[in-house]
Amino acid sequence: MFDLDGTLLDSMGVWDQIDIDSLAKRGIDVPDDYVLKVGSMQFRQIAEYTIARFDLTDTPEQLMAEWDDMAREAYGTMVEAKPHAREYLEHLKATGAKLAVATSLPPSLREPAMKHVGIFDLFDAIVSVDDANDVGKDRPDVYLLAASRLGMRPEDCTVFEDILVGIRSAKSAGMGVWAMHDDSSDRDWAEICDEADGVLFDFAEAPRTL
What is the reported pTM? Predict the structure, then answer.
């Protein structure tokens, strides 16, 4: 079971730039804690939080549409896979493993990105927090939904994640968890190393059997 942003996709820089550009249009600098705050939220939750925090006049729909327009081209043409991610997925698929995506990304972004890097057809199930009653990754709902779609018990699943709240949620559901390093999670890296079952900087280092 794989997260996308920051785990399979080297894409967190896209969102950093969107945050910078979107708030700069409104004369606002991105606060240091903003990315950490929104990291586990669903898309609409991020919009609502941003509007409330910065007292914006935009509606959530307007803000989400702006971000979606800014991100769609980048995800479909510029985002790349993390090192050896596709090869690792192909290896797992060849062993008969069932593969799922558990992401916060909406379909308009995740599908172009997955097709661009050549991994879209490797998965048996693709779910997002939107499918899990809009519950963010601070709770295990999206991972449990992915397990259900695969017909697997949680304790028989292994999750690959890059954010601390997601790692904790998956662990709370009884799943094994491997952490993929991403620069966006550097401030949590010590805790991630303590809580995950293993850590990775490259999928060439990932376990060959699960």
Answer: 0.82
